[in-house]
């Protein structure tokens, strides 16, 4: 990586960089050595504890994979339900009518401002008290409900940013050929906005996958992190089970993150489209309540501080 | 109407939430800035470490990290952070550690994006007058970068405020844990949920507004 922050190293800089490398390497090695030693002292390095996760398939088929299936099921359900809801509220916020815009905005701001765990806990007790959903499926319902309420509000902002990221000329041209508001939205803006916000949607999926783990600990949803507990108890292996679960999450989320970045890059380079994109980085901002409210300023693409 | 609130320390629980946010926020800011400095440094090993850290931590659920601090760090590695057998203090400190370690990855990315907004000429001029990498970074680039990332950092801080609820997973007595206890014993489900939701809105919305105002005021006009 060539950087503007430093020159190409001369002899002195090369020596200094080498010293830094060595010092940093020693620190890392010391850290790893400490980890290794403590794990050895606590019998976490025994092959018997790692074998179920590395060599055998039993630990995976009995414990971790069913957990992973539940994680994916909850994430997929949440995304499928949240997306149309989000589109509804996102478009509602762009409405010309005050009585549609204000309530839609209030709902979105409310659910963005509160932690997803609060929603899950509420849904869990709500289903328990007011419905006859069986106690085995209740955690799934509660987790999906919590995730849907929170993510629909984030996706509403993504949809709004996607529509606002399109050039004004699209709406103007649609008006010029006599399309009505609904037609413009349905046939001109939405199809393009969906493409533009694909990267943001995929990276929101990472957030959803990560949040399912919360349901596992707090309301006993049998997802991946929860299945770790049973596996760890059965094989008496704390660290190996954590490593296995973390690796599965990281691989899954890394794949999704990479897909999102790839989509974003492809869309930015696309010649056929308007080049409008709601990028991966925009998601953090769109998930934040009370962010700046400028209807004419597309939140999705241009950061306010971009040098002109 | 509000008799059911008796016997519950609502303000105390939200105070724990605030403390978690502040302490882990400071930790994340420091560690995240160090990580960002590593990611742009001329030492390949540090760049690699920074990139690996960010990619691994960002893709791990916070819940996994928090649960690990208790079952892994405390139970196996005996990292008790000087709590001396007091489990309440120990879990609080572990939660702060986990939240800071997780949030630092996002702070790092925000700071790095801020570094990219500083015009090339600034760093070039600094190098031309003979400043070293550390001097360029700490005297010229970071001060300008921070002013342009107050907005993104505010988003990270608000996300952190909401994320502190995950500390309930290891029994830290913050707002979400109290809410769980209350809705499971009291009858007023909706009312309790609304109170806690409003409590969190009270914490997150002003943060966004105040820091949004600061970010506009302090932005480097170019």
What does this structure look like?
Chain A has two domains: 10-37; 57-286, MetI-like fold, CATH 1.10.3720.10. In chain A, 44% of the residues are buried. By secondary structure, chain A is an all-alpha fold. Chain A contains eleven helices and no strands. With 222 residues, chain B is mainly α. Chain B has a single domain (10-218), classed as MetI-like (MetI-like fold), CATH 1.10.3720. In chain B, 76% of the residues lie in helices and 0% in strands. In chain B, helix 8 (175-185) packs antiparallel against helix 9. Chain B is globular, with a radius of gyration of 20 Å. Chains A and B meet through helix 1, helix 5, helix 8 and helix 10 of A and helix 2, helix 3, helix 4, helix 5 and helix 6 of B.
Quick description:
The complex is a heterodimer of chains A (308) and B (222). Chain A has 308 residues and is an all-alpha fold.
Explain the layout of strands and helices.
The complex is a heterodimer of chains A (308) and B (222).
Chain A lengths: L10 H31 L5 H8 L3 H36 L4 H16 L2 H15 L7 H27 L3 H9 L4 H38 L5 H12 L2 H32 L12 H5 L22
Chain B lengths: L9 H30 L4 H15 L3 H13 L12 H31 L2 H9 L4 H16 L1 H14 L11 H11 L3 H30 L4
Features:
heterodimer; A: 308 residues; mainly alpha; disordered C terminus; B: mainly alpha
Overall number of structural domains of chain A: 2
What is the string of SSEs of chain B from the N terminus onward?
Answer: HHHHHHHHH
Mean pLDDT of chain B: 91
Supply the number of structural domains of chain B.
Answer: 1
Number of helices of chain B: 9
Instruction: Return the CATH architecture of chain B.
Output: Orthogonal Bundle
Report the uncertain regions of chain B.
none
The stretches of 5 or more residues of chain A where confidence is low (pLDDT under 50) are 292-308
CATH architecture of the largest domain in chain A: Orthogonal Bundle
Proportion of residues in helical segments of chain A:
over 70%
The CATH topology of the largest domain in chain A comes to MetI-like fold
The class by helix and strand makeup of chain B works out as: mainly alpha
Largest sheet of chain B: none
Share of β-strand residues of chain B:
under 5%
């Amino acid at each position: 990586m060539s950087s503007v922050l430093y020159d190409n190293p001369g002899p002195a800089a090369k020596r200094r960089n080498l010293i830094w490398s060595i010092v940093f390497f020693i620190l890392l090695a010391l850290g790893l050595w400490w980890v290794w030693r403590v794990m050895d002292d606590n019998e976490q390095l025994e092959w018997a504890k790692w074998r179920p996760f590395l060599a055998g398939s039993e630990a995976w088929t009995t414990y971790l994979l069913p957990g992973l299936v539940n994680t994916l099921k909850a994430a997929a359900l949440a995304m499928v339900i949240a997306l149309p809801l989000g589109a509804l509220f996102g478009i509602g916020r762009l409405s010309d009518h005050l009585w549609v815009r204000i309530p839609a905005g209030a709902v979105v701001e409310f659910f963005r401002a509160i932690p997803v765990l609060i929603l899950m806990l509420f849904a869990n007790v709500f289903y328990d008290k007011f419905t006859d959903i069986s106690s085995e499926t209740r955690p799934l319902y509660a987790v999906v409900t919590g995730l849907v309420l929170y993510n629909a509000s984030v996706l509403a902002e993504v949809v709004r940013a996607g529509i606002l990221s399109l050039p004004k000329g699209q709406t103007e041209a649609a008006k010029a050929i006599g399309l009505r508001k609904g037609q413009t939205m349905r046939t001109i803006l939405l199809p393009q906005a969906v493409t533009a916000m694909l990267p943001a949607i995929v990276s929101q999926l990472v957030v959803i996958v990560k949040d399912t783990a919360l349901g596992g600990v707090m309301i006993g949803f049998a997802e991946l992190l929860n299945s770790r507990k049973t596996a760890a108890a059965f094989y008496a292996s704390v660290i190996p089970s954590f490593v296995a679960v973390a690796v599965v999450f990281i691989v899954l989320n890394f794949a999704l993150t990479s897909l999102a970045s790839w989509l974003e890059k492809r869309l930015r380079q696309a010649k056929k489209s308007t080049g409008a994109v709601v990028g991966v980085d925009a998601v953090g901002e769109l998930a934040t309540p009370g962010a700046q409210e400028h209807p004419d300023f597309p939140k999705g693409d241009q950061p306010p501080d971009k040098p002109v | 109407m509000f008799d059911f609130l008796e016997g519950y320390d609502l303000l105390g629980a939200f105070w724990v939430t605030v403390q978690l946010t502040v302490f882990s926020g400071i930790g994340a800011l420091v560690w995240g800035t160090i990580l960002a400095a590593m990611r742009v440094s001329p030492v390949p090993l540090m760049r690699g470490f920074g990139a690996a850290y960010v990619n691994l931590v960002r893709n791990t659920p916070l819940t996994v990290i928090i649960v690990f601090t208790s079952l892994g760090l405390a139970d196996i590695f005996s990292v008790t952070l000087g709590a001396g057998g007091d489990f309440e203090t120990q879990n609080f400190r572990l939660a702060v550690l986990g939240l800071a370690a997780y949030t630092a990855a996002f702070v790092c990315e925000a700071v790095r994006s801020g570094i990219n907004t500083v015009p090339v000429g600034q760093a070039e001029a600094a190098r031309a007058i003979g400043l070293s990498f550390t001097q360029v970074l700490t005297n010229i680039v970071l001060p300008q970068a921070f002013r342009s990332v107050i907005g993104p950092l505010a988003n990270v801080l608000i996300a952190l405020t909401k994320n502190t609820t995950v500390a309930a997973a290891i029994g830290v007595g913050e707002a979400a844990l109290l809410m769980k206890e209350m809705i499971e014993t009291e009858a007023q489900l909706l009312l309790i949920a609304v109170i806690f939701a409003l409590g969190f809105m009270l914490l997150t919305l002003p943060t966004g507004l105040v820091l949004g105002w600061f970010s506009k005021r302090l932005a480097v006009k170019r």
